[in-house]
Sequence to fold (464 residues):
Amino acid sequence: MLKKRLIACLDVADGRVVKGVRFRGHEDVGDILELAQRYGAQGIDELVFYDITASPQGRGVAPDWVARVARRIDIPFCVAGGIRSVAQAAEVLAAGADKISVNTPALENPDLIDALAARFGSQCVVVGIDSIRDADGVWRVRSHTGDPDTMRQAGRATLDWLQEAVARGAGEIVLNCMGADGTRDGYDLEQLAAARAACPVPLIASGGAGSMRHFTEVFENTDVDGALAASVFHKNLIAIAELKAELARHGIPVRL
Amino acid sequence: MADAVIKDAVMKDVVLLDSGGSNYASLIAAFERLGARCTPSRDPERIRAATHLVLPGVGSAGAAMRAIGEQNLDKLIADSTQPLLGICLGMQVLFEHSEESDVACLGLIPGRVTRLPEAPGIRVPHMGWNSIRSIGSNPLLEGLDGCDFYFVHSYAAPCGEYTRAVTEHGLPFSAAVGAGRIHGVQFHPERSGPQGARLLANFLELAA
Fold:
């Protein structure tokens, strides 16, 4: 039986892992390789490295830490941030990443998703969606979320964009619920359930994890394929082995 | 299982059959962590000198078969005598035909690869960790019955007499196959933690 995945997200800035709250105020939380290996040893199922400095710097070449991570760890990892073209994706994948994730560049140029899927296969192509509920009750996508000063409305309803991304070849969707992100108040179950119903490919919950209960809740109520978190893992607020044992007690299939 | 090692003292010389893909870094690293040498090559001399051959998957079945043909790797594979391991798409092209790109494949193992059907709660691609159930005794899978491995694929090989391990995602499919010196795994051992390392170590223990 396919297991539910626990995914640790590491925001990377200038070769270090950092963490911001609601995308603001980054603090240094450690060395990339050290954290990646620690998570691997603790039993995390997958890692996402979000290069938050790649986009502003307009970088085109895969940073050398991608190759170093690929050599060192033996679980799958995805690289997000700054991938704007098939050529840039090819470099990151050649360096050893298993998947690449695109967000703002896909909103600006949706054909990028088709091109990436055609070249590398859908299973390599993750589309990240940053979404928040507007005053009229509709979930809508935000773009350029890496920097609070440039963040903007992407002009798309979240569920419409999700379905378009899948139709264009996305093999996995990471839905970051911005209203919950950084709060540690729990995943946005309502939004994730709506996204689940609309999403035929693997769906990963992101934003809001604060306790073990939040993970059991999200798997029991929304049937997402994986749950992503950052600060609760970085700060050792939740031990991964304990979390997996807790999920197993609730009958949720996990890799032990 | 965290410290999978090769018991045999002879240096293992693995060649990744290079059909032009570039995503070999994690496989090379996985073999190097086991103390083996591992290099991509399409040079007939180099391939003949290898102790073990690995056929990685690159892109789609159609693209992979085209590249294999252009590099004459089909002939080199047929003429080789070493243990060979196809990984993911590299396992699928060992079969006779793939529904992906509707293309004739290497035909080293009978059967046709088809797309995994979607069903309620069954998402395609099949992406993530799933357990295998091994069939009979098989040195490649020794110590690994019931273990979880990392899968990422949308097409799969049916179960048949060459199936060495079964995984279920909606329907059962071949997670590992074997026919003499020819082996294949649908999952990615290089990304499957200690269990994956154990599988690669088991492979390196196989003699020609």
Observations:
- Chain A touches chain B through 35 residues (CB under 8 Å).
- The longest helix of chain A spans residues 32-42.
- Chain A is about 35% helix and 30% strand.
- The mean pLDDT of chain A is 91.
